[in-house]
């Protein structure tokens, strides 16, 4: 009985990893669509969002069925509820990537404000945090999970820096305002994706150490749009 | 046994309602702090955020204990997982209210851009949606829940309108840019609070009709910051 259940739990993890890989692809492609001014790619990201929506619903169904049918042990129960929360965060990553893609479509119609440096850097950091948080989940690496929570500050700072720089552009030339607002939204989306990776990392610590560290060091809210 | 469990579930609902009332107070006071330029009130909102954080952790603990100890029926199980999701949304409402309060503190140090009309209107609508979504949860009113999902569009439109108006100000007078950005963030926070009320409403439909309507009519992302 428990062996069957272990297989079910392994299936749940497997599904979550597939979902995470879709979310990461969306993030990377959304920023690539911006940097390469690639409308086709941006539209693909928007389409992939439906896939992530479906994953979230399926993950919930699977989890609730496992909870209902098997009367799981306390530790398994924690695993299932954590899997539901991680899935929710991954779905939100898809939403943020979709917003980036939408804003990229708008920006691609106008002259480029400046070469992109910080935004691709933020995207790389966020994608790494996401990947590492899922790895920490699958392999029970709570130290790695705690490290991710620290790395979140770096993206917060980059977001603040981007925000300040864009305000400078706006003040200097009001013609850039719409473009700057779009870029502020994109930067904020990346900062939020890193927040989702952080949420996953916090759930991993809770799962393996039984300690709820959410809100323990709530980051001060960042200024970008 | 089931009678005891019913009492436990009633306790869970009760706790959620108390939490919702804190979230609503935060929302209303944050906007009041902006409109009345009241720094003391803004700081109170920031402090109340910790209360909501604690509620979320306690709601999770309570829910997981109920799942673990009682091997609940399928319908009760759904109620418990929905309660966890609603609690998460209420905690986020607290986060948004805190952001509004922070931005109000910044705005209170500068001359007022214009009389506030749309923002208090959005706050009233969002608070009503939140209250009605919890009422729908407690009383199983799925029609009311569906109505809330419709009302979300009104706030989305108000947010777009505020956004357009503020871009106008920025273009006309770059001196207003920082204030406009703060107001855009506040407007977006209110739009997000309405999204959380909508999430609660969708969970209510799922709980009482067993139908997952999330993402069914995904609103197009709104342009404000």
Structural description of this entry:
Chain A has 225 residues and is mainly alpha-helical. Chain A has a single domain, classed as Up-down Bundle (Methane Monooxygenase Hydroxylase, Chain G, domain 1), CATH 1.20.58. Chain A is 83% helix and 0% strand. Chain A has 6 helices and no strands. The first copy, chain A, has helices spanning 2-35, 39-70, 74-107, 118-139, 142-172, 177-209. In chain A, helix 3 runs antiparallel to helix 6 (177-209) and helix 4 packs parallel to helix 6 (177-209). Chain A is elongated and about 65 Å long. Chain A starts with a helix and ends in a 16-residue tail after the last helix. Residues 219-225 of chain A have low confidence and may be disordered.
Brief characterization of the structure:
The first copy, chain A, is mostly helical and about 220 residues long. Chain A is built from 6 helices and no strands.
């Amino acid at each position: 009985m428990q062996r069957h259940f272990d297989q079910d739990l392994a299936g749940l993890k497997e599904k979550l990893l597939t979902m995470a890989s879709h979310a990461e692809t969306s993030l990377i492609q959304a920023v690539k669509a911006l940097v390469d001014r690639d409308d086709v790619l941006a539209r693909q990201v928007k389409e992939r969002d439906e896939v992530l929506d479906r994953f979230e619903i399926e993950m919930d169904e699977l989890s609730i069925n496992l909870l209902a049918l098997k009367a799981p042990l306390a530790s398994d129960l924690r695993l299932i509820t954590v899997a539901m929360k991680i899935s929710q965060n991954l779905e939100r990553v898809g939403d943020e990537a979709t917003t980036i893609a939408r804003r990229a479509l708008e920006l691609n119609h106008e002259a480029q404000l400046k070469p992109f440096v910080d935004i691709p850097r933020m995207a790389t950091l966020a994608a790494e945090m996401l990947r590492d948080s899922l790895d920490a989940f699958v392999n029970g690496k709570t130290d790695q999970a705690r490290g991710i929570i620290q790395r979140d500050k770096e993206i917060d700072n980059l977001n603040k820096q981007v925000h300040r720089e864009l305000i400078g552009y706006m003040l200097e030339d009001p013609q850039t305002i719409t473009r700057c607002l779009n870029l502020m939204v994109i930067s904020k989306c990346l900062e939020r994706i890193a927040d989702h990776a952080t949420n996953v990392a916090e759930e991993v610590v809770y799962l393996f150490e039984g300690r709820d560290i959410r809100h323990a060091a709530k980051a001060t809210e960042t200024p970008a749009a």
